[in-house]
Amino acid sequence: MSPSVPAATPDATGLRTMGRGTLSRTLVLRTTALVAVIAIFLSGLTALAMHRILEGQLDTQLRSFASRDFGPSDGDFDRPVRPGSGGPGQTQGLLVCASDDSAVVGYVQQDQSRVELSDEASAALGTLPESPVPQTVSLPGVGLYRVVVNEHDGLRMVIGLPLSELTASMMSIVAAAGTLTALAILIAFLAARQVVERSLAPLARLATTAHHVSSLELDSGEVALTVRVPPRDADPRSEVGQVGLAFNHMLDNVEGALAARQASETKVRQFVADASHELRNPLAAIRGYAELTRRQRDELPPDASHALARIDSESSRMSTLVEDLLLLARLDAGPNITLSEVDLSNLVANAVSDAEAAGPDHRWSVDLPEEPVVARVDHNRIHQVLVNLFANARAHTPAGTSVRTSLAVDGGHVVIVVADDGPGIPESVLPSLFERFTRADTARVRTGTTSSTGLGLAIVAAVVGAHGGTVTATNGLVRGATFTVRLPLRRSQPQL
Length: 496
Ligand SMILES: Nc1ncnc2c1ncn2[C@@H]1O[C@H](COP(=O)(O)OP(=O)(O)O)[C@@H](O)[C@H]1O
Ligand SMILES: [Mg+2]
Hints:
Blueprint: H1 23-67, E1 94-99, E2 104-110, E3 113-116, H2 119-126, E4 131-139, E5 143-152, E6 155-162, H3 164-214, H4 239-295, H5 302-333, E7 340-343, H6 344-358, E8 363-367, E9 374-377, H7 379-395, E10 402-410, E11 413-420, H8 456-466, E12 470-475, E13 481-488
Parallel strand pairs: 8-10
Antiparallel strand pairs: 1-2, 1-6, 2-3, 4-5, 5-6, 7-9, 10-11, 11-13, 12-13
């Protein structure tokens, strides 16, 4: 089974659950808002229904009072309301008011006693229209009342019951409903957050895997793309699982493509290495025979002699090309270098002196630190780097050019600089200078000194790269090219 990425916390991937603008936050807020709207609507409806019921009960009670004969048909309002049958009894807050053309008499019954209505309250009652249907009226000094107004024989009777109890009951109902609504909203919020976080957790893990894959270097070499979304997040029964499954299929596909690319690259590299290797021997034979025949120069006609000279020079150019290709193919296959303690001061001094012997028309100088610089490098390969740079300085600059080479230690690195005051690197080749077969117009190459293959700097870059170093090339402001090679002083042997 392919390994899967350990379930990282969302934060490790930069994902924020419940962060501003996230899907989880939106889902939780919307669900809570929906529950809140429904809960508020239902509690409002319940409170309204309760109010109707309580009011209905009060009205029924009121009507039954109004139908009884407790009134002072003889106009005697001072008589206390009789408890028990025939009257309203000791109903708390009962309002009785009668008026004829001459006077208005009214009271509110509190416990056993009566409280006379104030003038304002009596006046307010006096303005009410006659109606057997209970109506609500606000009486100054006594509060809200439900009243029935009856009129017969010129006598106007108002019977009322206070709304204070109903209001108190409604207050407790509204308070209870409000508390329950707030509780429901809180529970909905917590539950929604829990559910959403749980449901979206696979997405966060999927993103972790995607982040992991995106940080892999897939551009070259052998790539092990073993990362997969864990099976529990790739269950096709859920939508998120389907995404996980599709992601795993995509990774399978990419892994297959990478393996195919790697196989074909290896094949091509192997072919180049084999071909270069196989070409070495016939080339050596051609050069040998050409050399042998040239020794009998006197017996040959001038045309044949010239042709042999061309065969000799072209076959040696081809030998260089084949050797370079073989070296590059080997370096491509892996960091094919053998590290040992090398006295770089010595190596640089010798290489400059060899270059001076090979290019006496140029002016060579070297700048070495007082202490010998010893680094762990591959002696032959670094020698080759210097040979290539010096060969370029000879080949691509006119006679009389100065070539300064310096060696220095900068932190944990060795810095080798080869600078000349020649015409500089042509702008056209600068962007791809270290790529294979990059070379300027061959007309610029001075014939006779070396043959141009366009592989010299590619080898420099490959060797320096295999050492874990870097090489850069810059042109001077006015003239000259400068090559800077940085190599780590100490490096363990790279593994294939
Ligand atoms: N010191 C230099 N001065 C000017 N141009 C240079 C110098 N070194 C390299 N070049 C340019 O870089 C090109 C690539 O160099 P290289 O890879 O060694 O190939 P080659 O030397 O076989 O042409 C050369 O063709 C040349 O145009
Ligand atoms: Mg070269």
